[in-house]
Every structure is written in structure tokens, then in C-alpha cells.
Amino acid sequence: MVSSWRHEGIRDPHTQATFQALVDAIIPPYCLCTGTPVTVQAPGALHLRIQDYVIWDLDHSVELQPSGDTDSIPLSKSTALLLDIPLENLPRPYQNNPVHIQVKMSSIHQLTLFGYYSEWFGYGTTRLLPSNLRRIECCPPGWSLTRYTSSSKVWQSRH
Fold first, then answer.
1. H helices within 85-125, ranges in order?
2. What is the number of domains present in the chain?
């Protein structure tokens, strides 16, 4: 079973708020223009709870293994602090590590895009479970936005 430590970032209001603002800035809601007078609103990353994907991925990444150190905090929480505080007060593991900061900022942007266009939202209530326990509960919006057909045809045939 997944330890509660691994879900601490998802439950932390500051971490949630920081990543909500971030994913909303990266992929806000937008209009799909199809050349007709009808405009369709596409959901933004915030509407699809992609902040949970980014937080979950940060807290379950290989680099994040609790070391027994009493100062250990989930990587999502330290990254939220990184995004919100002055550089001179950086949390671990970012102190005196500009390369790690640059890599993490790039990966957060990529994780937002991966989460948005993947099946993450389609996992519904199972999305925070270990991957072997997740089940597709609805057709993910990213599949239709990218016109991804192979899995969506399987999904449609089952429902």
C-alpha cells in the first residue's frame, strides 16, 4: 500500500494552491475553433486536476526515497516552496544546486503537458492509486483533443 507520506503533497493546501496556479498558467482553458460559428471550450489543466498528476509524479519519482532524515519532506512540497520563496531561502534539495533547479523547472512543464494529454483524467477515482490498480473510468479529454484513436476505440467498445 502507498504510504501516507507519499500523499502528503496532494493533501497540503499550499502545495495544491501553488501547483494549481502553475498548471493553469501552462494550459489555461481555451476555445477550439472548428471553422463553424459554434465555439467549443476545451478544459484547462486546472479543470482536469493535472496539479494532482504533477504532485503525484514528484512524490513518487525515483529520486525521492525517504532516507530516515527527520527533515525529509515530499518533493512536491519542497518544489512548491521553490516556486514561492526568494532564492536565498531555497529548501532542500534545491539549496546551492542551480542545475537541479533548472532540470526540475523543465520537468514540471513537461509533466503538466504529459498529464494533460495522457489518460490521467480518465482514471477518475483510481488515479492516485498505484498504476497496477488504476482503471479507465471515462474517456480522457486529451485523447479526443489529440485525435488519438486506438485506445479511445477500445474505450468506446467497452462502454
1. 98-117
2. 1
